[in-house]
Amino acid sequence: MRRAVPLLLLLVAPRAFGDAATDRYRQFFKEEIEGRYAGEAVSDVRAVMLRDFQKHDVPDAARWLITDVLPKEEAGDALREAVRVLGTYNNPDTVDAMAALYRSTKSAEVRTLLQAAFGRMKIDTAVGPIEAGIKDRDERVAAAACIAAGTGRRIGLRADLEGALKHKHPAVRAAALRGLRELGGDESLPLVFQSFCTDASPRVRYDAWLALTKLAKEDLPCDPEAWEEFWKKMAGEPAEGETSPWGTSFPRVNAKAGKAVNFFGIPVLGERVCLVLDTSRDMATPWRIDHQEERRKPPEERIPNFFNVKTRWSLVRAYVLDFVGAAPAEMEFGFVFFNETPTPWPEKGRFMKNRGKTAKSIETQLETRVQLASVTAMYEGLAAGWGFVKGGDPEANFDKGADTILFVTDGRPTHGELANRPERLSDECWRIAVTRHVRFHTVGLHNHQFDLLQAMARDSDGLYVHFQQAGDTAEPQDLEFWPKKKKAFEEARKAERRGGGEPGE
């Protein structure tokens, strides 16, 4: 208790009592905080220590993070926290120091994380480092910079983002589309539309579709042909002496451009999709279905093979098989089944190409070879998912690892490295999303870890679904991620208050 009171006074003193108190506070910082951090061996504890650093808004704190933590720290969790804190220091001196570190460090991960911090800074001097980042020699850094340009609404970097649509790496092109989507406006619509119709990469076409739906304010499927009428409306008949910015003909659609495929209602389109599926003992719990209600739904909204769904696992299996059966030929699959330990499949850790007997092989694996048992080591399952090939080494996987992870669970982390630490697992997923450019789509069954799955989806620009069984009365937990659902839910609640009428009456 003797240490707590002086600490509180010191936190307030610099702003209240002038230079003398500030000097004492800086000395306290150097001797206490910096010293204890350097002596702490457990990276998880160091990350927790860094969480409170925005309270230490003195030059020494920012300088120490830039000179001693970022260049020397090897633990991903602590790196993530250091960058998050730096992103809250909105002053030119901090930006200049971060820019100097950006130019001098050889670590692509540090440069990538610095771009995430630049994106959050509401200060004009951050524009220069972001602009340099878009031209960085490392594709991961360039992609992070494109996203940072959108996060900070840097309108002046629109031309740089449009130029990045020609980058050789699909992750950079996809990130540029994400940045343009955040900038808003319709200036870039023709280029976005061109990417949607012609780009060879599924992940790029998916981000182009997301950008189109926002910029054009049109709710059309992820299918180029479905947008042809919109193009004709936008192109129209140009005034005499003018040319249409949309061109004179509808873009020639790439022959390999497959449509997005639904998974628990989430549209999915990627090059390498890894399905990380919970196989703990609770997945054997019965799942209730109202068969009459399912028959009344349109075929595309029904639970696949619903008459044979008896348990949570058979529900997941039905959706997986439906997804695989409808997936485009260019999509590749990998699986991780996790309970107490993760089990990657195929065993060699290589993605399966969608051809020939692939669908039958997956069906056999899901129906006869998966054992539901034990507890939920969620972190280990996800780690196996984002490092699916080359022995689970994410650093070697940027070009060959998963670009999309479909994560399904009915619980919360109860075993393994981050057991019962959802906030830490969320931090690690954020780091992977930023540095590896992986998109997480998450599906939670029953009473799962709502906040964790929502954060995983939000931080990676993915979608989250709370999937409920018949008879559940709990309010949906995914309204933030599904605006249509939110509107329908609110209308239903209003109708209920009026006396049970149908929504919209």
In angstroms, what separates the terminal alpha carbons?
A: 62 Å
Q: Main sheet?
A: 7 strands, mixed
Counting structural domains, the number is: 2
Strand fraction equals: 5-15%
User: Which shape, going by the Cα principal axes?
Assistant: globular
The helix fraction, in percent, is 40-55%
The CATH architecture name of the largest domain reads 3-Layer(aba) Sandwich
- Total number of helices: 21
Would you identify the regions where 5 or more consecutive residues have pLDDT less than 50?
A: 1-18, 501-505
**Number of DSSP strands?**
9
Given this structure, which CATH class of the largest domain is correct? Alpha Beta
CATH topology (fold) name of the largest domain: Rossmann fold
- The secondary structure category is alpha/beta
Q: What key phrases describe this protein's structure?
A:
505 residues, alpha/beta, Leucine-rich Repeat Variant, Rossmann fold, 2 domains, 7-stranded mixed beta sheet, two-stranded antiparallel sheet, 9 strands, 49% helix, globular
Write a structural description.
- With 505 residues, the chain is of the alpha/beta class.
- It has two domains: 4-171, Alpha Horseshoe (Leucine-rich Repeat Variant), CATH 1.25.10; 261-474, von Willebrand factor, type A domain (Rossmann fold).
- The chain is 49% helix and 9% strand.
- It is built from 21 helices and nine strands.
- It has helices at 4-17, 19-39, 43-50, 59-69, 76-86, 92-104, 108-120, 127-134, 139-151, 158-164, 170-183, 189-198, 202-215, 228-235, 291-296, 312-326, 358-369, 378-386, 422-436, 450-459, 483-498, and strands at 261-263, 266-268, 272-278, 332-338, 342-345, 352-353, 404-409, 439-445, 464-467.
- Strands 3, 4, 5, 6, 7, 8 and 9 form a seven-stranded mixed beta sheet that branches. It has a two-stranded antiparallel ribbon with strand order 1-2.
- Helix 7 packs across helix 8 and helix 11 (170-183) packs parallel to helix 13.
- It is globular and about 75 Å long.
- The protein starts with a helix and ends in a 7-residue tail after the last helix.
- Mean pLDDT is 84; it is low at 1-18 and 501-505.
